[in-house]
Amino acid sequence: IPETSNPGSSFPLEGALDLDVGINGIQAYSIAPENEYFSVSFGSRSEGDRYVELVLGKPLDREEQAEVSFILTAVDGGSPPRSGTTQIHIVVLDVNDNAPVFTQERYIGKVLENAREGSVVLTVVATDRDIGSNGNISYQFSQVSSQSNSAFSIDPRNGEIKLTKPLDFEMAEKHEISVRATDGGGLSAICKVLVEVLDVNDNAPELVVSSFSSPIPENTLPGTVVALFAVRDRDAGANGKISCALEDLELLFTLRPAYKNYYELVTVSALDREKTAQNHHLILTAVDGGDPVRSGTTQIKIEVTDANDNTPVFTKEIYKVRLLENLPEGSLAFQVKATDSDEGTNAEITYS
């Protein structure tokens, strides 16, 4: 009997046979044990045309009770009465009256961004209380964001979600997917899947110079900002936590945090072009806190220009010269010489 049969539906049975007639023939039917689903109806439609029917009193539900069994008894009117029995076994036929149900409304999976193609992210599971083809479930994506469209695939038979290409945490930290489970009768259910991408240290820190002053005069005061630069790392957490260092063998410059991820390169002592190099080659290094550690470097060349901070110096403090008294006018009497450590016009010397 289909589980969709309406209450009041009747199902004819073959009646019992009794060789006696009249009052000694069959007078009544009953079922035992009594149940809430079926009762027996016995009567005559026309003279000599008797019927026996089972009458459905309550809707059937195969998922609640798939089978119903009871004993049908026929009783005659003799004295003493005689009876006969037969067993009635009713199988409730399934109809597709149950949609698939997911074990969770929302599934959350986590996957490393360097997980290989084919890696299993998670498995969605739906059940269906129907049987046969009505309970066979297939899975497919219902809605996938454009950025996730080609990154995942789902096995239509077991609901296993796999990667079809590597993910990139820096491009998208989360992917939202809707999965539909459909049974053989066309009923379906939808669940949400959230895939969280876990960061790995696959990006090296970057140093970006935003302002730079070069050349600088040698009389630049200590504490003067020579360059401003930003450090950044596309990774997250410890993988994106950066520390900076400066390589300066002459110890003339230092790094000073400015704000957020900005640093200033400043002078720490007076410069002297005549004592130190005219050009300073500095190496800036940024190191992250990942495992393994990644680093980035950049080089800065600072040119120091001359300032007129040196006076001319004679080769001698006192020149002693002997002259003949009869030297003609205009003769070379003697020559003095001075030098200047500066350069350019600052080193051009005139005598008077």
TrEMBL record:
Residues 1-102, 103-207, 208-314 form the Cadherin domain. Keywords: Calcium, Cell adhesion, Cell membrane, Glycoprotein, Membrane, Repeat, Signal, Transmembrane, Transmembrane helix. Gene3D superfamilies: Cadherins. GO terms for molecular function: calcium ion binding. Signal peptide: none annotated. It is found in: Cell membrane. This is PCDB1 protein.
